[in-house]
Amino acid sequence: MRYGHGDERAEVVPPAVDWIVDTTAAGDSFNAGVFARLDRPGTMADRIRFGARVAEQVIGQKGALVSVDQGAWPPVGAA
Fold first, then answer.
1. Mean pLDDT in residue range 32-46
2. Phi, psi angles (nearest 5°) of residue 35
């Protein structure tokens, strides 16, 4: 995925997933993950990676809503 933000330009390759149960709301979940990190330190690439992790959780379960333990998420920028 290529993106531009101000003077920042880069490409982020989302991680491959081993399972897909239901893609309902995958895009919305990705966007929510990105937007949720806009007010935190980090690069846009970090935010996009986080959005991809949120979407990964959603597509691995049935339905658009998943229960998420916020403490289980790695910090922005973590691999």
1. 92
2. -65, -35
